[in-house]
Inverse folding.
């Protein structure tokens, strides 16, 4: 065989080997990027205990779930009032008892963020929603459950505020910020309400 042809063949083999290595490297990078890509998920952090803000959160959550998105709602601090079914004073410190007395005991007693006027604003909003055949907050919560929305009560907020399991509605998950962030890091959309 001709030495020029041998040299050309050797160079082509080296180029082919370099291209194969580059392809393997690019495939490995692509796999890493695909592993970090957000999924069809929505994560909502519910910090507010205001009726109007919580309504917006559940409209977004149920809309996203109806579109096939995986939805998780992380309720913390004042947002925990949405998940309450009653008040309990026993087994709490003085400050926790005071917090319990001053906080809404359920979703039905949430105030509105503006123009609440000792609860009149919330009653007006609920009445106007009913007149327009808009689902109540409680109906939206039930719909969210039917659609598989994960509802997570913040453990730290519960501990600080002295909220017992017996004060919360059933079927909830309890978790810390790590569970919230684990969902948020995989989500296309994360909202703080």
């Amino acid at each position: 065989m001709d030495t020029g042809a041998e040299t050309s063949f050797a160079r082509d083999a080296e180029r082919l080997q370099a291209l194969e290595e580059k392809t393997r490297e690019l495939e490995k990078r692509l796999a890493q990027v695909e592993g970090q890509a957000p999924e069809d998920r929505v994560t909502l952090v519910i910090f507010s205990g205001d009726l109007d803000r919580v309504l917006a959160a559940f409209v977004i959550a149920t809309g996203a779930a109806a579109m096939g998105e995986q939805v998780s709602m992380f309720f913390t601090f004042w947002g925990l009032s949405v998940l309450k079914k009653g008040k309990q004073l026993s087994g709490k410190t003085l400050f926790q008892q005071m917090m319990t007395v001053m906080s809404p005991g359920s979703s039905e007693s949430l105030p509105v963020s503006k123009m609440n006027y000792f609860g009149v604003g919330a009653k007006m909003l609920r009445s106007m929603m009913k007149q327009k055949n808009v689902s109540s907050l409680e109906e939206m919560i039930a719909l969210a459950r039917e659609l598989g929305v994960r509802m997570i009560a913040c453990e730290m907020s519960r501990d600080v505020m002295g909220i017992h399991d017996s004060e919360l509605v059933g079927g909830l998950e309890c978790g810390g910020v790590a569970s919230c962030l684990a969902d948020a890091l995989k989500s296309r959309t994360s909202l703080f309400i």
The beta strands are 39-46, 70-75, 150-154, 173-175, 187-192. Residues 38-192 form a domain with the Hypothetical Protein Ychn; Chain: A, fold (CATH 3.40.1260.10). The chain has a mean pLDDT of 92.
